[in-house]
Design goal:
Distance between the termini: 21 Å
Strand content: under 5%
Number of helices: 10
Shape: globular
Structural class: mainly alpha
Order of helices and strands: HHHHHHHHHH
Number of strands: 0
Oligomer: single chain
Radius of gyration: 21 Å
Helix content: 55-70%
Largest sheet: none
């Protein structure tokens, strides 16, 4: 069975929403545990304002990570993980479930999905997850990651103690709207990411499936990991400036009388004037190193769990295939 169809392997019905929820949540949790340190390094690099003057060179991702571990203990690399884990299950559930729903909506009458339809489904899925889950989750995560304090020193008390406290503090001091600061940029980033991600993954998966002895058989995990790794690297290069501006915007507290667009333009203008064009791509190395392996883990675990769950659903009493 081609990857460019709404049907499951062997022409079966597509996976249920429950399957997408469980498989997507498990895949997302594994991805977060493996790759979160690289995300923390990426955020610190994006927030750094060091310039190439007076001997102050920008730190690379390895040096940034080593400095975080030295000053804040290795646990500092996992700041904000609670916020990520709290949102990862609904995020991945929404991503895969909405993607499959949009794909079915855009499919032709015979169930085939064109490249344009697949791209659009990924775009809409990315926007959906950004509005529903990702934006508030990232505001909390970035506030935690931006704190530079040692987790081994009990006297070094940070403003935000954990994800729940950070969320409560932001709501109390800045209101509900603060959790949705940068929602337009987040939606743009997630939309372009998932459009590129799902399109590349589907095309590569279709090519590899056609070259198998049995084109209807699922791909082995190492192949889904490989194409997930490749597809995961596509998005970050195309929308790095959006992600950098979004990170700085979400770190800033709101100012009275300022609009979201005004703050975005102010941040972009200041970056251009004081730090140069390279600042817009700061953190691209750890971002690719975090997103690409993350997608490799996500797709491999998702496809594996989906296969296990769907196989169990087929083995219901009476040999009936049920929802």
């Amino acid at each position: 069975m081609s990857a460019k169809t709404v049907q499951g392997p062997g022409g079966k019905k597509p996976a249920s929403a429950a399957t997408n929820l469980i498989a997507g949540g498990g895949a997302g949790m594994m991805e977060a545990l493996v790759c979160h340190p690289l995300d923390t390094i990426k955020v610190r690099m994006q927030l750094s304002k060091r310039r190439y003057e007076k001997g102050q060179k920008r730190r690379g991702f390895l040096k940034t990570g080593m400095e975080i571990a030295r000053k804040e203990t290795p646990l500092g690399l996992y700041k904000g993980l609670g916020a990520v884990l709290t949102g990862i299950v609904p995020k991945m559930a929404i991503r895969f479930t909405s993607y499959e729903w949009y794909k079915q909506l855009l499919a032709s009458e015979d169930g085939k999905v064109s490249g344009a339809a697949n791209f659009t489904a990924g775009l809409f899925a990315g926007v959906t997850e950004a509005v529903a889950v990702v934006t508030p989750m990232e505001v909390v995560k970035i506030r935690l990651q931006a704190q530079q304090h040692s987790m081994s020193d009990p006297l070094d008390v940070p403003k935000y103690r954990n994800a729940a406290h950070a969320c409560y503090t932001v709501l109390k001091e800045e209101g509900v709207s603060a959790l949705y600061r940068g929602v337009s940029l987040t939606a743009l980033r997630q939309g372009t990411n998932q459009a590129a991600n799902f399109t590349a993954y589907t095309e590569l998966k279709d090519i590899l499936q056609k070259r198998q002895d049995d084109p209807t058989a699922p791909l082995p995990s190492w192949k889904t990991s490989l194409i997930g790794l490749i597809s995961g690297a596509v998005g970050p290069f195309s929308n790095a400036p959006i992600d950098t501006i979004k990170t700085r915007l979400q770190r800033m507290p709101a100012e009275a009388g300022s609009t979201a667009l005004g703050r975005i333009m102010l941040i972009a203008n200041q970056m251009w004037k004081t730090e140069g064009i390279r600042a817009f791509w700061m953190g691209i190395t750890p971002r690719v190193m975090r997103v690409a392996p993350g997608q490799a883990v996500t797709f491999a675990v998702y496809e594996y769990l989906k296969g296990v769950l769907e196989k169990g659903r087929e083995m219901l009493p009476g040999n009936e295939y049920q929802e």
